[in-house]
Amino acid sequence: MVVAMLVGMLALGPLWRLGFAAFDASSTMDRPDVMAMSMATSMAVAMSLWMWLRGHGAASITEMALAMYLPFAVLLVPLWLGLLSVGGLMTLGHVAMLGTMLLAMLRRRDEYTGHHRHHHRWSRRAVSEPAAEAA
Description:
The chain is an all-alpha fold. Helices cover 76% and strands 0% of the residues.
């Protein structure tokens, strides 16, 4: 999941800048709150796609995406009040994100542990033997 999140930041990060530039709002990305939430969105989109490809359901994907946003959303208040630096926002947000993601995984422990071959959407077995999986 962490690799998918990094890919999301690298692939989608530049698109945020282009998008804001298209609306003549490039300086908006310089705001730490906008930067943090766009980064969380980039990570959540890539991770959600990866989870979907791995066969996770909508509820699990939604919970995991919310787990990624929650720390940043909570930390924005102290940032806006001047009680937290930008570096603190980024450090605490990413560390707390790993914790909230762990909680989301523990909530659906069976889905995140054990053998996952049946989860792959592109699995040859899932395509060729669907009845055997149901039995």
